[in-house]
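2024-03-11 09:14:02 INFO worker-7 job=invfold-0412 stage=load source=structure_tokens
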């Protein structure tokens, strides 16, 4: 009898361990830095969102008229929970502040998890030759975990007269797994997105709300495992 009881106890312990191990599956809510615990509590959670690099440097000259610009951040800015905000935060203007029409491309974070910190700006039409332009990044850009960018950024460059046939390597790898928005020029620079990709169904729950739901789901799972295990033990004992 002792051996049976011991085996039941071991079974309960193993079930509880398995339940806790599965907790991150119910709470994929890291901040995009790779240092999270599955609940949005990454060790870099309080570090502000930062623009780490750009494919064109400030003051660059002879930029191709059909150039695609890549911006790299330190956190996830492609998650569906922040796309509605972030699609309004990137602009391309000439030296006089006139908006140029662009295609704003975000990797699909749900499919391409390795690319969640990049955004691409592609002119909708070829840029004018030997003209100064500015890429503007608003101070309202937000990461998946709710942190905002450290400050607004402006990158100025001047076009040349040539075109490029070089394709961005990341966009080539992403293929169709992207979310694309297109803006108009002038006053209508922030037009509705070309491809909403389910944005109308985005929940407005914050990262902390999602984490709370995940914890509740985990507790319920553990409770159910314990209840069924106790019932199983009771039935076995009654049969004996």
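2024-03-11 09:14:09 INFO worker-7 stage=emit residues=240
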């Amino acid at each position: 009898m002792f051996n049976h009881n011991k085996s039941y106890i071991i079974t309960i312990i193993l079930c509880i361990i398995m339940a806790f191990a599965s907790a991150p599956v119910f709470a994929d809510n890291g901040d995009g830095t790779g240092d999270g615990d599955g609940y949005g509590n990454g060790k870099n959670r309080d570090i502000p969102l930062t623009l780490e690099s750009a494919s064109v440097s400030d003051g660059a000259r002879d930029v191709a008229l059909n150039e695609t610009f890549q911006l790299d951040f330190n956190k996830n800015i492609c998650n569906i929970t922040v796309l509605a905000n972030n699609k309004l935060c990137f602009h391309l203007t000439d030296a006089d502040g006139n908006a140029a029409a662009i295609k704003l491309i975000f990797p699909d974070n749900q499919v391409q998890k390795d690319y969640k910190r990049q955004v691409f700006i592609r002119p909708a039409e070829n840029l004018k030759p030997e003209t100064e332009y500015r890429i503007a990044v608003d101070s309202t850009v937000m990461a998946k975990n709710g942190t905002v960018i450290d400050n607004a950024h402006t990158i100025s460059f001047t076009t040349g007269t040539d075109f490029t046939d070089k394709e961005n390597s990341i966009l080539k790898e992403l293929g169709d797994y992207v979310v694309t928005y297109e803006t108009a020029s002038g006053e209508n620079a922030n037009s509705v997105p070309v491809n909403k990709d389910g944005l109308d169904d985005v929940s407005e729950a914050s990262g902390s709300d999602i984490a709370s739901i995940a914890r509740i789901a985990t507790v319920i799972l553990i409770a159910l495992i314990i209840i069924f295990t106790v019932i199983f033990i009771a039935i076995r004992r009654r049969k004996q």
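2024-03-11 09:14:09 INFO worker-7 stage=report msg="The chain has a mean pLDDT of 78."
2024-03-11 09:14:10 INFO worker-7 job finished
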